[in-house]
Amino acid sequence: MIERILRFSTTQRWLVLFGVALIAALGIQNYEVLPIDAVPDITNVQVQINTQGRGFSPLEIEQRITFPIETALSGLPRLDHTRSLSRYGLSQVTIVFKDRTDIYFARNLIAQRIQQIKGQLPEGISPEMGPISTGLGAVYMYTVEAKKGALNEQGIPYTASDLRTIQEWVIKPQLRTVPGVNEVNTIGGFEKQYQVAPFPDTLLAYGFSFDDVIEGLTKNNANMGAGYIERNGEQYLVRTPGQVANIEDIRNIVLGNRNGVPVRIRDVAEVSEGTELRSGAATLNGEEVVLGTTFMLMGENSRSVSQRVAERMKEISHPSWLKRSRKFAMASRYLPATGWRGAGNSSSSFSATNRLKVVVPLALLLIFLLLFVSFGTVKDALLVYTGVPLALTGGIAALCLRGIPLSISAGVGFIALSGVAVLNGVVMISFINRLRQEGTPLEDAIRQGSLTRLRPVLMTALVASLGFVPMALATGRGAEVQRPLATVVIGGIISSTALTLFVPPAIYRIFHRSEEESEAKQTTDKTRTQPAPTI
After folding, report:
1. What does the alpha-carbon distance between residue 216 and residue 221 come to, in Å, rounded to a whole number?
2. Which of 5, 355, 404, 451 is deepest in the core (most CB within 10 A)?
3. Residues 310 and 338 placed together within one structural domain of the fold
């Protein structure tokens, strides 16, 4: 059967090359759809539970919040270990699960346990699970800055509070709609607040308390419905809009009346625009800015998500109508007056990918030069080198079949595969050349050399493939780095070895066709010059 395959590959060599071209085209197509993720995410499966307890000391946080949560979450299915952090006003419990645990299954279990222990926690304390992201999930970072000389709607330069408002109400909601984005965090600036500062002596004089002020603000900041009225076959909705719209509405809220005179908030308190108490800030080149960090959903491709976020940021900062309507653009209160700068893990990913685009071609060129030095002819070097693209095609196909993105570890696997893939050709072509030097005809040399060296080629490929199987099936820490490398090598070795019986013999026959014709001509000339037999 093997002889038939060899005979077919040498006689139908152009058909074999056409099939190889189709396989190469398939490899290119697979490469186009193959996701690229420069750095594999080695973060384990974990869920963070964050709980704020304003005014609680670290000891109280540990005793009343952290310890009950950790105790309730012990014994979860596929739980590996837990760790916690208790600080002033903050409790953080991290639940780490075993590898290959479904993150949504884990979060569902934690949500059920948290619901059961809410009654054991202090009043007003509500634990929250962190975003479905990992330690490498911060794929895109940007800053929101005011352009030089830009003025806000009050005619004054933009403040840190204005930039924070733009981030929270203009940029952040639009980024949350980008596919693959799970969370957008904000650092820096000031969160705008309307602050009510009561006068204690005035409250006592009117007979009100702080609770009365809080109750009045709460009850007078809501819209109420009152059913509907039917008239002439039409329905008229009745509602009472009571939601405050500005600072003046807060000042005019009525707390009660004294001697028939209404007492309003402005009579017993000072109402003003203020900012939150913060514990940190963000600066760029010594100037305060608002920093936004975009986190991708666990399991997404960081390169694709960061590219989508970058495109959305361009739409936010430079919408299509800016050029068409210059007057409307100048009247906008947000976009023309602010700018953004992007950075984050995506920049590192692009840099690593660009370096890999240089390293891999250099490695392939070095392999070709070594083959040329070894064989001494370009033909034989190219003949052996044909195993490299065949192996690369198999490696790409293996990544696609296993759903593994193209990463740096996969690139290292391609470099190693390029060196292993040429071994089959070196073993086979060297033996065929030796047979040719001994005077064996071309057809016989190809057939005999392929059959003789087939077993060593298969054994070499089998040993190399089996050696990478444990890495390809690895689990646990470091498996995300090992699996792409081993998958590439195994897939490439299998494809290059499977095509060894077809491609090298066919190409060798094409490259040395002139030698075959010269041998046939010499044989014909010898036959003609021989004297005719005497009867």
Report:
1. 9
2. 404
3. yes
Q: Does residue 498 sit within a domain?
A: yes
Q: Give 440's pLDDT tier (boundaries 50, 70, 90).
A: confident
| One domain, residues 459 and 516 | yes
Look at residue 507 and tell me if it is in a domain. Answer: yes
* Helix %, strand %, coil % of the chain (to 5): 55, 20, 25
pLDDT of 460: 78
DSSP result, 218-278: HHTS--EEEEEEEETTEEEEEEE-----SHHHHHT-EEEEETTEEEEHHHHEEEEEEE---
**Which residue, of 91, 111, 133, is where some domain finishes?**
133
> What's residue 339's pLDDT?
45
Which of 105, 133, 161 is at the close of a domain?
133
Torsion angle of the four alpha carbons 527, 529, 534, 535, in this order, in degrees rounded to the nearest 10: 40
Does 262 lie in the same domain as 123?
Answer: no
Do residues 85 and 100 both lie within one domain?
A: yes
| Lookup: tokens for 329 | 């653009």
Can you tell me which residue has the tokens 């600066």?
Answer: 283
Whole-prediction pTM: 0.68
Specify the amino acid at residue 98: K
Q: What is the pLDDT of residue 514?
A: 59
Look at residue 28 and tell me whether its pLDDT is greater than 50: yes
Q: In angstroms, how far is CA 160 from the centroid of its own chain?
A: 31
Domain of 459: which CATH number? 1.20.1640.10
Domain count along the chain: 4
CA distance 430 to 103: 54
Model pLDDT, residue 510 = 74
β 261-264/90-97 pair status: unpaired
Contact 164, 188 (CB under 8 A): yes
Residue 338: the pLDDT is 43
pLDDT at residue 359 greater than cutoff 80: no
CB 353 within 8 A of CB 38: yes
pLDDT band at 535 (very low <50, low <70, confident <90, very high): low
Q: Which residues lie closer than 8 Å to 214 by C-beta, 6 or more apart?
A: none
Q: Are residues 270 and 281 in the same domain?
A: no
Do residues 322 and 407 both lie within one domain?
Answer: no
Closest CA to 473 of 485, 455, 463: 485
